[in-house]
Amino acid sequence: MIICIFISMETYDILIIGAGPIGLACGLAAQKAGLNYLILEKGCLTNSLYNYPLYMTFFSTSEKLEIGGVPFVSISAKPIRPEALEYYRRVAGSNHLKIKLFEAVETIQPAGNGYTVGTVNTYYSAKHIIIATGFYDIPNKLNIPGENLPKVTHYYKDPHFYSMQKVVVIGANNSSVDAALETYRKGAEVTMVIREAGIGKRVKYWVKPDIENRISEGSIKALTHSSVQAIREHEVDILTPDGLITIQNDFVLALTGYQPNFSLLEKAGVRLSDDEKKHPSYNPETMETNMQGIYLAGVVCGGMDTHVWFIENSRDHADKIIAHISAK
């Protein structure tokens, strides 16, 4: 059997990997500078935001989520997921950004004065690469027995599904707290399993009193200084300060955080720190990595410190990168 692979003959000034808010901001800046660019996205437009809980409220106010100088108008000061999806979709559409969706990047190889980028079905040539892949697609695994059971998920979408069920929520930060509160209010019996002493310090300030009050009154059970040891079809083993306990369980929401696609960075030749943080090497003034012509933008810059970068404080990465490329 002969397999034909199409190879794009056009050489782009910039290939942008990731069509999230920061990838779109890079596209807008490149377009404004008159550079020939293309955005490649492995999923749908703003794929990570699409996979957020249905009605998640952003920590940032709407004006801090704006890109390309396009106003973001929301009903409340802090927009919710559907509003953000609509905003970024309209920004991409109205500006006619050049995007190829559902085209996952697999390889980045030096070629002449630039790079060849291989996707699932073709190759592209570019002088510069911007990696803006975020961090939401690879969950931090528990590595315990039963983690692969169908009842276990690392992503939470909608609370109705868990109505009248016994739910274990693992974690104590924003995603875990939102899931615990929402499923409880839809009739689930919720037990939170928390490694530390209590709710995380970075939990949204308007939510923190709610979850702490629900725990205090016993509506939601919280096991602190504890960890899940094993998951079975109808039970969960939890190691607590008082020893190992077993509780009845229908579903487990293992909301233990996520990490960037380190494999893609390493394939591109980007150096990562030797410690567990895996901080990528880049110049904060230009966002260029140790690989000449390869830039980082957005959350991917933080390595395992995924709480450092957000849309609001990484929007300027686009302007830094495009200014550096234009100066060349």
In CATH, the homologous superfamily of the largest domain goes by the name FAD/NAD(P)-binding domain
Q: What percent strand?
A: 25-35%
Helix content bin: 10-25%
CATH topology-level name of the largest domain: FAD/NAD(P)-binding domain
Instruction: Please summarize the sheet with the most strands.
Output: 7 strands, mixed
Q: What's the overall average pLDDT, rounded?
A: 94
Distance between the termini: 45 Å
> Which CATH architecture of the largest domain?
3-Layer(bba) Sandwich
- Tell me the structural class: alpha/beta
Helix count, per DSSP? 8
Topology of this protein?
Blueprint: E1 6-17, H1 21-32, E2 37-40, H2 47-50, H3 81-94, E3 99-100, E4 105-111, E5 114-119, E6 122-131, E7 138-139, E8 152-153, E9 166-170, H4 174-185, E10 189-193, H5 208-217, E11 221-223, E12 227-231, E13 235-240, E14 243-248, E15 251-254, E16 258-259, H6 262-267, E17 294-296, H7 311-314, H8 316-327
Parallel strand pairs: 1-2, 1-6, 2-3, 6-17, 8-15, 9-10, 9-15, 10-11
Antiparallel strand pairs: 4-5, 5-6, 7-16, 12-13, 13-14
